[in-house]
Design a protein that fits this description.
Layout: E1 6-11, H1 15-26, E2 31-35, H2 42-46, H3 49-63, H4 81-109, E3 113-116, E4 118-123, E5 126-130, E6 136-146, E7 150-152, E8 165-166, H5 168-171, E9 180-184, H6 188-200, E10 203-207, H7 219-231, E11 235-237, E12 242-247, E13 252-256, E14 261-264, E15 266-269, E16 273-275, E17 308-310, H8 321-337, E18 349-351, E19 357-361, H9 364-369, E20 374-380, H10 385-390, E21 396-402, E22 408-414, H11 418-430, H12 435-440, H13 450-462
Parallel strand pairs: 1-2, 1-6, 2-3, 6-17, 8-15, 9-10, 9-15, 10-11
Antiparallel strand pairs: 4-5, 5-6, 7-16, 12-13, 13-14, 18-19, 19-22, 20-21, 21-22
Length: 463
């Protein structure tokens, strides 16, 4: 057997890389993480998930005083928008720093070596690492996991300047609330930032080529979200394609294919992300990306070189921190123990718009395409005491149930705490519970979770 410097080398210290390194260390393996940035945590911690969700929380707190219910008592608690944003960014920095310290402590506690520098393949088992000061070292490993994440797509036709024309990373560093903001895109990132800055007081316009926001999602949920956006004075320009984005002395001008023009102080371009393969020199490891920039992997996250795995955003959809963590654990046990681990149930998805959206399982559209004989039941936040107390009139929990087997096929939620409430439905589906279980379960009163019972009882009435 050849001798290697490490049992496992992980390139990238994001959620997937951290999880893989810790899992391997717990198996007694010699592990190192190579990280090219001067910090750990990857995009998720530094420029993505954590900062954007923290900013969303501040925007939600700023916005909820306009709600009905008891939160009207906050209406007199006003503050300077820019001062509020400055304080918010300072607090976000503290959250990121604290989380980064926790990650470093965890890696050190488990004996994981952290190697700073830019990694590139020399051959299928060897990497060159160029350190921050230009020093080079060659490192070998029996197994290698690529977990370098993704970055916002930045077409050359878009004149990004990090001041007025921004991507999702640079928008998080903005030091003021723009009076007006154009958001290009109708996906998750676009919708999240549109609702955040509308809550801060920006006049927001969303431009997207699709007929509706979040085109892949359940129609009932998107309808509520669109109505909520309009109530926040977000202008939706759907079925609209861009021709040109121009920087002007006043800000930015957008020209559509139909010849219409829109102007704003700031623009966010949020159409897709690209894998971070950078300077890895994949070809030297016998790996090749397709025309879209992705490397093919199998169901175990192995590349054509079976000792090299790809996880996280590099593995494609669903591109979530939660799934990346699980992929890191799965790949390590597959590599060192030959275990084939799989997720035990359906994966939940959450979109941190205002209001929150979350779902698990299939949509009505997907069930109709499969010709499934299903029914749906809906529980409305506004019909619960808790929903009335917090002033969430539009929130709902929707269950999709197989009419014959009574199995729960999908759960869709929009409203406050949707990302938390979804786990009730996820666990029911994981345990293969029938809708009857939710109908006969006693939930705390008053809670939003009671919507599950209302939706389930509606299903039973149809059954």
């Amino acid at each position: 057997m050849p001798s290697f410097d490490y049992d496992l080398l992980v390139i990238g210290s994001g959620p997937g890389g951290e999880s893989a390194a810790i899992a391997a260390a717990k198996l007694g393996k010699k592990v190192a993480i190579i990280e090219r940035k001067p910090y750990v945590g990857g995009v998720s911690l530094q420029t993505g998930t954590i900062p954007s969700k923290a900013l969303r929380e501040a925007a939600y707190l700023a916005n909820r005083s306009s709600s009905w219910g008891m939160r009207r008592s906050l209406q007199n608690c006003t503050a300077s928008k820019n001062g509020f944003l400055t304080d918010t960014l300072r607090l976000i920095s503290q959250v990121v720093d604290h989380k980064e310290a926790q990650i470093l402590s965890k890696l050190m506690r488990h004996g994981v070596t952290l190697i700073p520098g830019e990694a590139s393949f020399i051959d299928t088992h060897s990497l060159q690492v160029v350190g921050p000061h230009g020093d080079e070292q060659h490192i070998t490993a029996a197994y290698i996991i690529l977990a370098t994440g993704s970055r916002p797509r930045r077409p050359k036709s878009v004149p990004f300047d990090k001041q007025v024309i921004l991507d999702s990373s640079s928008l998080l560093k903005i030091a003021h609330v723009p009076a007006s903001l154009i958001v290009v895109g109708g996906g998750v990132i676009a919708c999240e930032f549109a609702s955040i800055f509308a809550s801060f007081g920006s006049k927001v316009t969303v431009i997207d080529s699709h007929a509706q926001l979040l085109a892949y999602m359940d129609d009932d949920i998107v309808t509520v979200l669109s109505d909520e956006f309009k109530a926040m004075n977000i202008k939706l320009c759907m079925n609209t394609r861009l021709k040109e984005i121009t920087r002007t002395t006043e800000g930015v001008k957008v020209t559509t294919e139909t010849g219409d023009t829109l102007q704003a102080d700031t623009l966010l371009y949020a159409l897709g992300r690209k894998p971070n393969y950078g300077l890895l020199n994949l070809d030297k490891a016998g790996l090749f990306a397709d025309d879209q920039g992705w490397v093919r992997i199998n169901e175990h996250y192995q590349t054509s070189e079976q000792h090299i795995y790809i996880i996280g955003d590099l593995a494609g959809r669903p591109s979530l921190a939660s799934t990346a963590k699980e992929q890191g654990r799965i790949t390590v046990h597959h590599a060192f123990e030959g275990k084939v681990l799989h997720n035990t149930g359906p994966l939940p998805m959450a979109i941190y718009t205002i209001p929150e959206v979350s779902y698990v399982g299939e949509t009505e559209r997907e069930l109709q395409q499969r010709n499934v004989n299903y029914i749906k039941g809906v529980g409305y936040y506004g019909n619960t005491a808790r929903g009335q107390i917090i002033g969430d009139e539009q929130g709902l929990v929707k269950l999709l149930v197989d009419r014959d087997s009574r199995d729960i096929l999908g759960v869709h939620i929009i409203g406050e705490s949707a990302s938390e409430l979804i786990h009730v439905g996820q666990m029911a589906m994981t345990c293969q519970a029938k809708v009857d279980v939710l109908a006969t379960t006693v939930f705390n009163y008053p809670t939003l979770a009671q919507c599950y019972k209302s939706a389930a009882l509606e299903c039973l009435q149809q059954l």
